Structure formats: structure tokens, C-alpha cells
Amino acid sequence: MDQDTHAVDNQDATLEPPGTIAVIGATPLGLEAALYGRFLGYDVRIVESDSIANELTERRDQPLPMTPSRCCSPLAWQAIETHATSGSLATHPTTIAEWIDNVWVHLSETDLLRGRLVCPAQVGSLELIAAETEDEEEVPPDFRIKLNDSPEGPEAIDVEAILWATGVHAAQSAAKFSIPCDYFHLIEPSEETGDEETRFWNGLKRIVKVYASLGGRKDLDLYRPTRGE
């Protein structure tokens, strides 16, 4: 069983909004995962060690490696269009530079994600801690994310769930517990075949599965077009 599949198999590991979630990595899929959670009403924070879509910056001059209309989810595009002013109407990118600046940076500044980014902040370690509860009911442990290189931000963040968007090996190096585990979801596996557009949309499917699992539902697809489109 692969790691990202295991992470969404336990339908008992549910978390209702406004539960707290940390998305690790302001990658394209990390930002999509954060937006999805915010749209559903979760309290989401994004932790990024460098900059938004940092893994793409060395390729800024290259053409967009996918169909422009499929470079982000319908949910993300709606948020960008809603946030755009009359003087800066959103347009589909044709280069990776435009993909970073006009899509991912812009998305981080929209109403649902503004102020949710902790950057720069390097994850030092991940620990399990006892969850605070007002009764004697047994509840799953929370996660404590200890941060390095966060001069103006918190030294640690406590959350009920983590969506990891920077690769399996980095997660395994930081975690003081076994991965996979309940409430810890891998959005970007370390290895996956196919072109960049296929990998991106497979990642969006994983995001849907994660939030469906947290909601205790078989499906929770917000990417489907409305009837008539």
C-alpha cells in the first residue's frame, strides 16, 4: 500500500471545521490544499521555508508545461478572478514566471489565504502531543511543528492535522513518529510518472480524497463544474 493511499483509508479519522490544519510547503499543490481547506471552513496555516512556488523559480523563463486553462483548479481560478481588480484582470499564464506571479502569488493574497502564510520558516521537527480536551473522552494526539529560521513568526505551531506538500523523504526526516499515520496526509509523493499536467491533476485528486476522508465522506469534490458549464 502506498503512503498517500494509506493516509486516506481510515474513515474514523475525521476532523470537522473549524479544525486546525497546517499545510507544509507553499507549492502549487500546497496552496491548492490550503485553499480547499479554507473554502470548507478549516483554520489553515501554510508553512514555507523559502518562497511561494520556490521549486519552480529556476525555470521562470520556460514555457508553461501544461494547458493554460488547466494550470490551477477551478476553485483557485475563481478565487483569483474574484480578487482581481478592474486594472489587473486575471489572465491565463503562458510562462512559468507568469504561473508563479499571476497564479500562485496572487492566490496567496486572496481573501481566503491572506495572512495564512508563515514564511520563511523551516520545519525543524514534527512531534505528537496530547490534545487538550475539556472532558475525559479519549481523542487523537495533535501535532507540534517546531520551526527554524522564523525570526518574525512562531517557534512552534500546534494543529490537529498536517497536509505535507514537499515530498515524502523530507516528512520522514522531520517526523518523530511513524509515517503514514492518521491526520498526516502526503499531498506530493516523492515519485510519480507522467507529464507535469497529469501529476498536478493527480495531486488535486489526492486533495479531494484527503478532505473527503476528514469529513467522513466518500466524496467531497469541489472541483466539479456546476451544472450547465
What does this structure look like?
The protein has helices at 3-6, 28-40, 74-83, 96-108, 168-174, 196-214, and strands at residues 20-24, 43-47, 117-118, 122-129, 142-148, 156-159, 161-164, 184-186. It is globular, with a radius of gyration of 17 Å. Helix 2 runs parallel beside helix 6 (196-214). The strands form two sheets. The protein has a five-stranded parallel β-sheet with strand order 3-2-1-7-8, covered by helices on one side. The protein has a three-stranded antiparallel β-sheet with strand order 4-5-6, with no helix packed on it. The chain starts with a helix and ends in a 15-residue tail after the last helix. The protein is of the alpha/beta class and 229 residues long. The protein contains six helices and eight strands, in the order αβαβααβββββαβα.
Overall shape: it is: globular
Got a strand count?
8
Assign the structural class, choosing from mainly alpha, mainly beta, alpha/beta, alpha+beta, or little secondary structure: alpha/beta
- Estimate what percentage of residues fall within beta strands: 15-25%
Determine the mean pLDDT.
88
Unreliably modeled segments: 1-7
Concise description?
The chain contains six helices and eight strands. The chain has 229 residues and is of the alpha/beta class.
SSE blueprint and pairings:
Layout: H1 3-6, E1 20-24, H2 28-40, E2 43-47, H3 74-83, H4 96-108, E3 117-118, E4 122-129, E5 142-148, E6 156-159, E7 161-164, H5 168-174, E8 184-186, H6 196-214
Parallel strand pairs: 1-2, 1-7, 2-3, 7-8
Antiparallel strand pairs: 4-5, 5-6
Helix pairs in contact: 2-6
